[in-house]
Amino acid sequence: MRIFYVIIAIVILSGCGNGQKESTKNEETGYDLMKQNCYICHMPESQENMIAPPLFRVKEHYLPVYKTEKEFVDAIAKWAKNPSEDIALMPGALRKFSAMPAQYHIADDTIRIIAKYIFENEMEKPVWFDSLHTDMQSGNMMEGGKIELKDGKKIDVSDDVLNAMNEVRNIVSNFNGKSVEDYNKLGKDVFDKAKIILLDKNNKGETWDNLHKYFNSMEETMHNLISAKTTLEAKPLKNKLKKQIDKFYYYFE
Question: Could you tell me where the beta strands, DSSP code E, fall in 14-136?
Fold first, then answer.
């Protein structure tokens, strides 16, 4: 009988050991596949070589909206196979770099392994990235960078932009939704308006750069409102979003 228990213990311990090795192997595979397939575009050596947003920024945009592993992996896989404006979460990057080529040459399973690795692990930040944002500490900073007001004058934008922002402000100010789904839709409506503005090629040069910085400052609030699970969570996000929208008129006219 004693020999039987010893054998059982050995089997259990062997199983645990194999599981640990398999887990480590899977993790290494995810990292290796990510480096092989993603780093050439999403881990640039310098700002000048940047042709796509760094992976840590991609995760920052996707995780607030797709909070579970399945949702996150499904969303990344969908984008990788069919990048399009209607599902884009990074309209500024889409406008700046254009949509990435559809990754038909990469197996679906490989993309899902990479997406799972991104979900589960902290993404490396390019060493040069923080130096781009060292000026974010002064008074008129938005989270997306510094908005320049030349001689204290507001930035001229088109009537289309002003009308869109007036509409957004009215939507948020007059919002009286009751359910969390109402709040989710509010966040989506505001995000869709922001995406239209950022993708509008009539907005060019410094005007577009500053609009991009402005919307970067509120993107986390929009994404969190879209994915809020309760009204208790959503209400302060809606109030924060309203303040951020009101701030538009400090910079633009």
Answer: none
- 8 Å CB contact between 218 and 144: no
Domain 21-125 has CATH 1.10.287.130: no
> Would you list the domain boundaries of the chain?
21-125, 141-251
The amino acid that residue 28 corresponds to is E
To the nearest 10 degrees (0 to 180), the angle between helices 231-246 and 219-227 is 150
Residue 127 identity (one-letter amino acid): V
Helix-strand-coil split of the chain, %, nearest 5: 70, 0, 30
Do residues 156 and 210 touch, judged by C-beta distance below 8 A? no
pLDDT digits (tens, 9 = 90+) for 83-106: 988 888 888 888 888 888 999 999
User: pLDDT digits over 42-84, tens only?
Assistant: 887 777 778 888 999 899 889 888 889 999 999 999 999 999 8
